[in-house]
Amino acid sequence: MAEITEARQLVDDLAANCTAMDRCRIGVEHETFLFTREDRRSLPYEGSAGIRAVLEAFQAFGWRPTLEGGQLIGLTRGGAGITLEPAGQLELSGTPWEDLHGVHAELATHRRELSEVARALGLGTLALGFAPEWTRREMDWVPKSRYRIMRGYMPRVGVHGKDMMTRTCAFQLNLDFCSEADMRAKFRVAMALQPLVMVALANSPFVEGRDSGLTSYRNYVWLHTDSARCGLLPLALSPDLAFASYVERALDVPMYSVARHGAHVDLAGRRFRDLMRGALPELPGERPSLEDWKAHLNTLMHDVRLKDHLELRGNDALGLEHSLALAAFWTGLLYDRQALEGALSLVADCDVARLNQLRHELPRYGLADGEHIPVAGLYAADSFREALERALALAEAGLRRRHRLDAQGRDERHYLRPLQALVELGRSPAEHWRARFRGRWRSDLRPLYEADGL
């Protein structure tokens, strides 16, 4: 495997991922909490109804095992994978699809298979951004060497890194870019407009059995995880954003580790550019491979990040309909040239400092606040709600122009409707759960575990 010695090699690798418009795909990553029906506990890795047993049960559906050090840590089937987050949160890394109909079919299949496995093992699932009751001490750790390294490093760079690892779940969307200019436009729009859907689809109001006072406790946790690699990336709104500038910044973001001989070598806090010089004492004289670089890019966890595609990471885990609605929103905005141009106009004067301020205020906002969230210096709109409605209209028009039909002759716009309905109602999922918690549930979270988990 070729050694990486120059930044130009890394720039060229990013540029090689430019994809023709008619070949751009949509991929999703859906994370889910699992719990025991009997006592609503999170799962250990071991045991007859533990995480490993879940992965073993999935193999009946044709999934193939992935091992590390003899331990079962994931599954693959075709172009998809099932992986484990640090405390056993189950993540579906989906196949890239040419339209949302394929995404829907895959998520529906995953929902069916997961439900069958969970029912057989006496388990339930939760599609929420943050564990509603479990403490950090209750969470078991998956036996992956990379997570052991991160676990030791996180307290050095933030106060909530371990909470991020063990008690959060997300829904993420992967989209392609056609050129460096197209990447720049999509990155800017995605970073600037993330707050709109982060508020509209906030889905984690509870922490350790109580109302946190926030609509997305998960987003609050991410803001206090690691400022070098989380939250807003100012470069995304700069005209200087390019493959080369992104590479230069990534070279100086502290590393976690590199994989060697089936395990991970602890390089926490080291710089990738020093590894390129063969100057790390842990690996004297050794230079990285392209696989090392790709693994490092995967540790940059901003709300939007660049790899061989753009990954939009800002949202809490969601149920099936709202997951598809979020995918429809971004597909309509970013995969139609006219909609993308309209979105660029909407964020043309977006100021990095103002966006960063909004990003830090977001966890407490709900859709009920849509008329009062300040947007001066952010969006070409008079209110947050108006900006969201304009973005939704652009997305819907983009989906209409895409004209991708399913077997019933429907285009992709119907996937957007659950998000449109939330905006019309003026209540995010978090606000829905909070109203029930304060009302008929009488501050008891037990009914939450009976909700549909995916």
Automatic annotation (TrEMBL):
Keywords per UniProt: ATP-binding, Disulfide bond, Glutathione biosynthesis, Ligase, Nucleotide-binding, Transit peptide
EC supergroup of this enzyme: ligase
InterPro entries in alphabetical order: GCL_bact_plant, GCS2, Gln_synth/guanido_kin_cat_dom, Glut_cys_lig_pln_type
Its EC number(s): 6.3.2.2
GO molecular function: ATP binding; glutamate-cysteine ligase activity
Domain of life: Bacteria
Record function comment: Catalyzes the synthesis of gamma-glutamylcysteine (gamma-GC).
Subunit structure: Homodimer or monomer when oxidized or reduced, respectively.
Family: Belongs to the glutamate--cysteine ligase type 2 family. EgtA subfamily. Belongs to the carboxylate-amine ligase family. Glutamate--cysteine ligase type 2 subfamily.
Name of the protein in question: Glutamate--cysteine ligase
